[in-house]
Design goal:
The complex is a heterodimer of chains A (118) and B (168). Chain A has 118 residues and is mainly α. Chain A is built from 5 helices and 2 strands; from the N terminus they run ααααββα. The chains are: A mainly alpha (118), B alpha+beta (168).
Chain lengths: 118, 168
Amino acid sequence: MATDLLDATFAALADPTRRAILTRLAAGDATVMELAAPFAMSQPAISKHLKVLERAGLVSRGRDAQRRPCHLEARPLRAATDWLENYRRYWEESYRRLDALLEELRADRAGDLEEGGA
Amino acid sequence: MNRTRELTVSAPSDREIVLSRDFDAPAALVFDALTRPELLTRWFGARGWNLVVCEVDLQVGGAWRFVSRGPDDAEMAHGGTYRVIDRPHRLVYTELYDEQSYPGETLISHELVERDTATALTTTVLYATPEGRDRVLKYPMARGVGESFDRLATVLADVRMESRGDAS
């Protein structure tokens, strides 16, 4: 996945209203009117958020000219979560090395105590 | 005692990354592992990245500088200034990469809480700007952040999310 697209995904996810829209769409497709209902927002305001989500590839619009239902596109979202998981694994690997070191330090310290050392 | 040693990563705001994990050691040892070069060089880094330079002037206002060498002899250098040194509870310092593509210093805060003989380490990485945090994606070590696992979990049920287990 191109870094620019990943940036767009994270930027799109930075807004709580847009995250709420995605959460709603995870339950099924919805029209702009349906999406606007739970928010104290006008349809144009919701449409603005939808445009950001569309540009990030997170949402697509149906062909039905009247309703144009919004649909969640899971793939870029998965790429973003995969990336976070990649970050987590990097530090997990580093921290496992720290586990081994700490175990050794504790053993050394126990040894020092047995010998009456500092 | 039943504790988790799983690392959790979250992004509670658009400028932060938070890493949390327990270690089977007293807080003083974990603190030393974060601040003493002879210990840092033995664990800091992963995926072929290791510290080749590790300089620490452990006093408030003192400087630190790390150089890591990775695959294909790639090098990455970063450093900063210590702000808070409260062994073994808290360590705060700034961070700036030599070839940083985003503006401003990053603030890294480690909180250590000892329970019995284990220590919960919580590290908060605070970027100067949201753009900085997102730009971190471009680093060769693939450092950076996305939105909170918890929030994404509600959106994509089929992606397995990390959740912190019992913290007792």
